[in-house]
Design goal:
Blueprint lengths: L11 E3 L1 H4 L6 E6 L9 H14 L8 E5 L3 H13 L2 E7 L4 H9 L3 E5 L4 H15 L4 E2 L7 H18 L6 E5 L4 H13 L4 E7 L28 E5 L1 H15 L5 H16 L5 E6 L26
Parallel strand pairs: 2-10, 3-4, 3-6, 4-5, 7-8, 7-10, 8-9
Antiparallel strand pairs: 1-2
Length: 309
């Protein structure tokens, strides 16, 4: 088996602690952190690179280049190492240490951009680099590449449909490139038009939910399909942190901040969902990528981890 073959077919985990607060409503989460590089972005990165190879755009003489907030970059670096391609990644300078180290250990080059410009700054900088020397690079452009959302249409959405026994009623997902939300939502609505697809985004342009976009204040990805949003749920950073901690403490699921935001939004959906609903959300990556982040620090005076929802 090649490492490419390990992508996808991730487990659907029932969040029993969170679900028990609601009568006859079940909340499931797709455990995307079991992908080989540890995040949902393996799906899109694999699809975009294979599409480039198939079209003759990605050759051994070219360097894979793109902007990333971390997870897609780690996936590019992993696949680049496995397939024998050089990888250069533009990312905000304030991207956390764990992500930078993983990318470096996989042999990719990091070029840091202005942290005040967030992912938009990295996106604009990589476009300038490609424009200056287009023959040197293969630029997947994850924000505008239909192979990104297409991967989720073919795999993530199809898997959720089958794993729930065709019973999913609500799909809840945050958005960075929007590939996971757009592709999965489109597939689920093609399976059953009545499925509600709910977008999650930070409650403010200035937030700490890494890997997600506040769409109204940023450059919107070309693959973002707003027509798929049946509702938008804003999540505050502190609420995302709180739920991320409780995923670890109450469910035994060690996931990242965007996963906490997704579950927080799923809980909001559950408050008004009809009895018998099956709500599915995404656990985007592992909490091991955020070990150095301050939000893990216990707020209690005695130092005990005792958060509750």
């Amino acid at each position: 088996m090649h490492i490419l073959d390990m992508v996808g077919n991730t487990p659907l985990v029932e969040l029993t602690y969170f679900s028990k607060a609601f009568h006859d409503i079940t909340i499931f989460a797709k455990a995307e952190f079991v992908n080989p590089s540890g995040s949902v972005k393996d799906r899109a990165a694999k699809a975009m690179l294979l599409d480039g190879i198939e079209k003759g755009l990605l050759t051994k003489e070219k360097t894979i280049i793109d902007a990333t907030s971390g997870n897609t970059g780690i996936a590019y670096a992993m696949f680049g190492a496995a397939l024998g391609y050089k990888v250069t990644l533009y990312m905000p300078a304030n991207t956390n240490l764990e992500r930078k180290r993983m990318i470096g250990y996989l042999g990719a080059t990091i070029i840091e951009t202005d942290p005040l410009q967030s992912s938009d700054g990295a996106f604009l900088a990589v476009q300038e680099a490609v424009k200056a020397d287009p023959e040197q690079y293969f630029y997947p452009d994850q924000y505008n590449n239909p192979a990104n959302s297409g991967a989720h249409y073919r795999t993530t959405g199809a898997e959720i449909w089958e794993q729930t026994g065709h019973c999913v009623t609500h799909f809840v997902s945050g958005m960075g490139t929007s590939g996971t939300f757009s592709g999965t939502s489109r597939r689920l609505k093609d399976e059953r038009a009545s499925i509600k697809t709910i977008a999650v985004q930070p409650s403010s342009p200035f937030h700490g939910i890494e890997g997600t976009k506040h769409m109204d204040s940023t450059i919107k990805p070309g693959i973002f399909d707003e027509s798929l949003q049946d509702a938008i749920i804003p999540v505050e950073t502190e609420r995302a942190y709180e739920i991320t901690r409780n995923l670890a403490l109450k469910e035994g699921v060690f996931a990242g901040i965007s996963s906490g935001a997704n579950v927080a939004a799923a809980l909001k959906v559950a408050e008004t969902a009809p009895e018998g609903s099956t709500i599915v959300t995404i656990l985007c990556d592992s909490g091991s990528r955020y070990i150095s982040d301050h939000f893990w620090e216990p707020p209690a005076e005695d130092g005990m981890f005792n958060w509750t929802i």
